[in-house]
Amino acid sequence: MKTRPIAALAPVAVLPLGLLLAACGTTEADADDKPAPKAADSAECSADETTTSTGRVKLTDSYGRTVELDKPAERVAVLEWQQVEDVLSLCVAPVAVADAEGYTTWDTAEKLPEGVTDVGTRGEPNLETLFGTDPDLVIVEAYTPDDEILKQLAKYDVPVLATKGADAADPVANMIDTFELIAKATGREERAKAVVDGFEAHLAEAREKVAAADAGKGAGKFVYFDGWVQGGNVSIRPFGQGSLMGELGEQLGLENAWTGEVDPAYGLGQTDIEGMSELGDATFFHTGTVDPEGDVNAALAENAVWQKIPAVAEGRTHAFPAGIWTFGGPRSAEQVIDAYVDLLTQ
Asked: For the region Disordered, what residue ranges are annotated (predicted)?
């Protein structure tokens, strides 16, 4: 399935992004020969009037590394989907991204403009293609200060911004911190403030809608999950305490029913159909995006044990709209909020 770089067979173990990297090498090219990136392709960005700073940039990334730029980055290459979305929300079009097709399938919060170079998979980007786009900044997601991807990119004379993709201690704050860090690197702080303010207002309004629909009955239990099929077996991944999906649900007044073990970064658990049967008094929510590598929802629909779980048998199992990235930035988070509200108030 298309997840963050988390091992499919052991989803509670967070692994480095760059376990395997394509053969490296730069393509020599004059920057003047490179076309300027187009503006991010959205009506909102076309109407955006927020300013872009122009001075030198000096900042500290998520792992304490100093990043210095002569001016805000314009030609950015991005190797993870949350950060691709963030760049587009800031009305900056990247020159290169990893797995453009996957992004288009799993993250519909921001549309990827035409002409962006695809540099291969997120876990195994082709660095020759990447640096052939002449970026002035490469944005990555790392898990440790000495992540393998950072070691590989350090061989090139291009600044690298390392962001922390998740933190179960406060997933919403980490999402916003990552977004604002990218905004500083691209000189789009004013735009970032407008987006973050919009997200917070969106959340507050949604909370009121859910409270009004609940009409004093008390917060209900819920669990959001996704999963995959391998060898005919179904594995289910609940989004527990510390997950972005879980936190957004709780921000709306719900109670996360998954109390089992989760990983310390993404707040993700691991279980099977029998394990989910123990949560049958909760409302189930799950991804509506069909994984090209195997439709877990179809597999569950054919399972007799799954059909007997109260949440399933009583119609309290709901699919989110397709294309909502559960590890995204503020715009994806707004989509998540809208999905919860639509399903809770219908």
From this structure: 29-53
